[in-house]
Amino acid sequence: MPKFLIQATYTAEGTKGLLEEGALGRRAAVDQVVTGLGGTVEAMYFAFGEDDIVLILDFPDPVSMAAVSLTVKASGALRTRATPLLTLDEIDEAARRQVAFRAPGA
User: Fold this and answer.
1) Which of 23, 87, 46, 37 lies closest to 66 in space, CA to CA?
2) Three-state SS string across the chain, please?
3) Which residues lie closer than 8 Å to 8 by C-beta, 6 or more apart?
4) What is the CA radius of gyration of the chain?
5) Chain segment 33-91, per-residue pLDDT in tens
6) What is the distance between the alpha carbons of residues 15 and 18, in angstroms, rounded to a whole number?
7) What is the model's pTM?
8) Cβ contacts of 1 within 8 Å, gap of 6 or more
């Protein structure tokens, strides 16, 4: 199942919602969204600094992750970045594949 690292920053409006609901309320909302598309929440942490929240999510396919990303961004409550995560085996497989590439100017 594809795995994604999500890094997000709350907008002022999103922060107000977090203060009203609390962290457990937001976790319940995240669980509902992710499981509704057949995924699971592996980890969820709140942070401070550049990112307010960091998650590791599993989804059955990248389209499910894209659907969540579009919906969350459209809310205006968060600015998010989603990074696909690859296993060691997937990187080894990628390293074995032949790629026809010529560097610029070569």
Assistant:
1) 37
2) CCEEEEEEEECHHHHHHHHHHHHHHHHHHHHHHHHHCCCEEEEEEECCCCCCEEEEEECCCHHHHHHHHHHHHHHCCEEEEEEEECCHHHHHHHHHCCCCCCCCCC
3) 51, 52, 53, 54, 55, 72, 78, 79, 80, 81
4) 17
5) 999 999 999 999 999 999 999 999 999 999 999 999 999 999 999 999 999 999 999 99
6) 5
7) 0.88
8) 39, 40, 58, 59, 60
- State how far the Cα of 2 lies from the Cα of 61, in Å rounded to an integer: 6
Copy the structure tokens of residue 105: 């100017």
Phi, psi of 100 (to 5 degrees): -85, 100
Q: Can you tell me which residue has the tokens 């995240």?
A: 30
CB 103 within 8 A of CB 81: no
